[in-house]
Amino acid sequence: MGTPRRSILGLILASAVFAGVPNHAIAETVTVFAAASLKPALDEIAQTYEAESGQQIDLSYAGSSALARQIQHGAPAQLFLSANTAWMDALEADGLLVEDTRRDLITNRLALISAADNPVSLVMKPGAPLAEALGDGRLAIALVRAVPAGIYGRQALEHLGLWAEVETRLAQTDNVTAALRLVGIGEAPLGVVYATDAAASDRVRLVGVFPKGSHAPIVYPVALLREGDTPEARAFLDHLSSQQADAIFQAHGFGLTEGAP
After folding, report:
1. In the beta sheet, which residues pair with residue 61?
2. How far, in Å, are 2, 21, 197, 202, 227 from residue 156 at the CA level?
């Protein structure tokens, strides 16, 4: 069994004091729980921030629902980035957020994808032959009752009148990245993911984007968690709203919220 993380940190701090290095020169790692769809962009933001600040950022990715439940059960996260407002609302209702630190960070679009070598053509509108395009296969989608991408996907399919014909033909996954992977490896002919996921993979092809009015706006809120309120965590939270971070998010296909600089 390995040495607990905080014990290791304590040994490092003790060694630093013995060597004449002040404690504040060694900052604790900032632990961030983030929606799986944020991985390419957030990895780049954290890498750049670490190089410039010397602060280590520990990123943990999963479906927003799974991460929120872990936080509710005491997981030691300091920042939470959700792919929808509902799971952040749940943590706020539980009193787990630091007051006045919650903000809407970025936006996204919902997309239908196929494998890169699948020439299927569909326009996402009422009456689209989605079931026909699936053939004998299934539609890859994140959990439609829990994971934001799946919730948005169900809303869009219901709005377009397509839900009834595909409801029993879903391949549901724990997060949107897993749905993307199913399509990329050919296990599912089509999938519902975020537009940013489609752009980040050369194994899938963007078939079409769902109309904005067909589902709730896709907004990613971020907040500082009550049990992880440190100066280092606050500094990284501020960095996530900086022009430098904005540029990286936009380069990965995300949109900025109206309040962004």
Report:
1. 34
2. 47, 57, 17, 25, 36
CA distance 109 to 219: 9
* Same domain as 176, residue 238: no
N-terminal to C-terminal alpha carbon distance within the chain: 47
Give the span between the Cα atoms of 97 and 184, in whole angstroms.
Answer: 37
The domain that holds 29 is classified in CATH as 3.40.190.10
pLDDT digits (tens, 9 = 90+) for 96-148: 999 999 999 999 999 999 999 999 999 999 999 999 999 999 999 999 999 99
Q: Return all residues near 201 (Cβ < 8 A) that are at least 6 apart.
A: 180, 184
The answer to whether residue 12 sits within a structural domain is yes
Region 167-187: mean pLDDT is: 97
| 36 within 8 A of 177, measured Cβ to Cβ | yes
Bridging pattern class, strands 79-81 and 103-108: unpaired
Looking at the DSSP bridge assignments, the partners of residue 172 are: 141
Q: Which residue range is the domain that position 140 belongs to?
A: 110-209
Residue 159 CA from chain centroid, whole number: 24
Number of domains in the chain: 2
